[in-house]
Amino acid sequence: MSPTSAPDPSDLPQAARPLFGFARLLRRHGFPVAPEQVTGFMQAVYLLGPRSMDDIREAALAMLAPQPDRRDEFEAHFRSWFYGEAAAVVEGEGEDETEIKDDGGAIEEQLEIQRTETGGELSSAAEQLSRRELQSDRSRLTNFQRRISDSLPRRRSFRTVRTASGGHVDLRRSLRSILGSDGDIPSPRWRKRQTVPRRLLVLIDVSGSMKLHTADYLRLAHAVVQGAPHAEVFSFATRLTRLTSALRVRDRDQALARASELVDDWDGGTQIGATLLAFLSVPRFSAFARGASVVILSDALERGDPAAMQLAVQRFAARAHRLSLATPLAGDPRFRPETAALKAILPLLDDLVDGSSIAGLTRFLLSLARSAPDAKTLWRRAS
């Protein structure tokens, strides 16, 4: 086994494959794990025996070296992978645990990775379960769907592509070319890092106070998922539901019908802080927000303790590339962010925009790649 390259899983003994799988899990969730660290991890476990799971854990900490600020996330991944624990704990005092409903996208995501791996008066905190059927407009968002992927902010990928000049010398291919030409010195081969669109994460408030807007928001979310391959969509009210897999169905009517079946808390109460903290407590979901453009579609009328909402937004702001709140209340020219919750989160937001119309939302989403003054600057008159 080469110390500088990760082994082929098919060449490993059966007992070593879970160790290799854990390292791959960390890499999928954004941990910087090099191939030699994977090899070192398995060698460390071999040297330790191991006598217990604590030995495996210590070897993982020593060789895979998670960043201090992601230690809790690392521990959660370890217990999930080796112990099968999947419970999500919501931070907060005296709050019941928020139910999280995943749409089964985990297996689908793993297969995709393997394939590609080369109005406020209705607001309350009471839970009310109901279902709704959604109808769709087949042509309204077609142009937006075509443009959204190219309009998202971009980041530098770790993958590289060939280039005629610039970047860095591809030493391996350059040397191979020299050997193939009997020692003559040809032009060097160059490679540069790709730029790829950042992930777009959309969180949709489906509580009673948003009843007039959620159907349009789901149509917009379908166009987002169809146009941006790595987009993620969740709904929240008193529960949290992942809708991405349902919205990947190309036919909009079928996709919205599946989404309507997944969500149990249509038009009920709202627990914004608790559900957003529930999202962040699941490592796989939290990873969706890291480096992403996060857009929350909500009136932000938190009937509970605004401290929970402030904590959740603070953590989203620390992870996201750009954090935006689109509220339909901003469509009224008399609107001011004067509630306790909005005043608390305003300094943390990059954008506070009008979410009362699909036309306005599509224009905003298509402008995410352009920098904008933060929300506090734009709404200074409210502070």
Automatic annotation (TrEMBL):
Pfam families per the UniProt record, alphabetical: VWA_CoxE
InterPro entries linked to this entry: UCP010256, Uncharacterised_CoxE, vWFA_dom_sf
Superkingdom of origin organism: Bacteria
SUPFAM superfamilies recorded: vWA-like (SSF53300)
Start and end residues of each stretch annotated as Disordered: 117-136
Matches recorded under PANTHER family: BLL5662 PROTEIN, BLL5662 PROTEIN-RELATED
Protein name as annotated: VWFA domain-containing protein
Organism: Hoeflea marina
Higher taxonomy: Bacteria, Pseudomonadati, Pseudomonadota, Alphaproteobacteria, Hyphomicrobiales
